[in-house]
Specification:
This protein is an alpha/beta fold. It folds into two domains: 216 residues, 3-Layer(aba) Sandwich (Aspartate Aminotransferase, domain 2); 132 residues, Aspartate Aminotransferase, domain 1, CATH 3.90.1150. The protein has 15 helices and twelve strands. The strands form two sheets. The chain has a seven-stranded mixed beta sheet with strand order 1-7-6-5-4-2-3, with helices on both faces. A five-stranded mixed beta sheet has the order 8-9-12-11-10.
């Protein structure tokens, strides 16, 4: 089945792209091979030159990886997709393929810590600079634009404060400036939000998170127009930040249950956020599904639900935050998210620990902030685990 948007999301997530071999397998085949054999020298030459389509070498062509790419493109409503070894590899590949020395990026300051580090310390070595914008007002992005701005990069909702950006307005702003808009859709996935429908050019994923859904493997992907994806493919083919066939196969199985999982996790997260908002030891809860969230109305226009990430600020700073984390017996203390198992972390010393104190403060990452990625356990059990430490704050 091809990328046929007449099918519903659940059907696309299960059926898109599968072609059975001569054995008639029902589950997707896993092609664990480094290279592919040609029938003769002429065929090899035609494949390497691009005159014929086919599989050559698993660094850049593999049937299992191709199937994952086709399926995710269908789910995002994109023309094409290129898979990478991780989410950060996807962001790096996008920048290296589409930008050059002298180009400029405008990025939201609230993006993931590793993304900030990439833009602030690594890309400048290649002559690409970034202006970070605080807040969610599109006018702030407009003020940061320069004649050489080629990319606006956002994460919506953001990690970990769940800030929500107006995708449609930023897409118009980018296009009027001759730039591209790239959206990190890790928190929502296409099950809740499809940025291309709002005008985004590129959608970036850490497939390690919700797309896999069980914390098993690393992966990344970029979805977008065929012309842009072909440019990124050229970089990926040469530089080699490749998604392995095995990881692609695992994530394919995750896509089959993506909508069920994310919708259930979102429902759990909303219930947990409501309960935490009433706790006296908590200064503030960050969750787009709550009416108290500054961008709640925008989130409900762009997203089908609030997502699975609930962050909250504990009164008492790091000591209190660590007390909550250390008293958990059920929740997994790990920085990963999107798992069926609920995870908990202290962003200031983990995901955003490499940032300077000034950069963390500017991004709103306080010492009392705790991030919970809600899984599929009973909400009452998740709450009870958190209350064990909160009762001591």
């Amino acid at each position: 089945m091809s990328n046929d948007q007449s099918y519903h999301f659940e059907t696309l997530a299960i059926r898109t792209g599968q072609e059975r071999s001569q054995f008639g397998e029902h589950s997707e085949a896993l092609y664990l091979t480094s290279s592919f054999v040609f029938s003769n020298a002429a065929e090899a030459a035609a494949l390497f030159s691009g005159e014929r389509e086919g599989f050559i070498y698993s660094r850049f062509t593999n049937p299992t990886v191709t199937l994952f790419q086709e399926r995710l493109a269908a789910l995002e409503g994109a023309d094409a997709c290129i898979a990478t070894a991780s989410g950060m590899a996807a962001i790096l590949a996008t920048a290296m393929a589409l930008l050059q020395s002298g180009d400029h990026i405008v990025a939201a300051r609230g993006i993931f810590g590793a993304s900030q580090t990439l833009f602030a310390t690594i890309l400048p070595k290649f002559g690409v600079t970034t202006s970070f914008v605080s807040g969610c007002d599109p006018d702030d992005f407009a003020k940061a634009l320069k004649p050489n701005t080629k990319l606006i990069f956002i994460e919506t909702p953001s990690n970990p404060l769940t800030e929500v950006q107006d995708i449609a307005r930023l897409a118009r702003l980018a296009h009027e400036a001759g730039a591209l808009l790239a959206v990190d859709n890790c928190f929502c996935t296409p099950a809740l939000q499809r940025p291309i429908e709002f005008g985004a050019d590129l959608v970036i994923h850490s497939a390690t998170k919700h797309l896999d859904g069980q914390g098993r493997v690393l992966g990344g992907a970029i979805c977008g127009p065929k012309a842009l994806i072909e440019e990124i493919f050229k970089f990926m083919r040469t530089a080699g930040p490749t998604l392995s066939p095995f990881n692609a196969w695992v994530i394919l199985k995750g896509l089959e249950t993506l909508k069920l999982r994310v919708e259930a996790q979102s429902a759990h997260a909303l219930e947990l956020a409501r309960r935490l908002e009433a706790h006296t030891a908590i200064e503030r809860v960050f969750y787009p599904g709550l009416p108290s969230h500054p961008q709640h109305a925008l989130a409900m226009r762009q997203q089908a639900a609030g997502g699975a990430i609930v962050s909250f600020e504990v009164k008492g700073g790091r000591e209190a935050a660590w007390r909550v984390i250390d008293h958990c017996r059920l929740l997994s203390i790990t920085a990963n998210l999107g798992d069926v198992k609920t995870t908990i972390t202290h962003p200031a010393t983990t995901t955003h620990g490499r940032l300077t104190p000034e950069a963390r403060a500017s991004a709103g990452i306080t010492e009392g902030l705790v991030r919970v990625a809600v899984g599929l356990e009973a909400v009452a059990d998740i709450e009870r685990d958190l209350l064990r430490g909160l009762s001591l704050c």
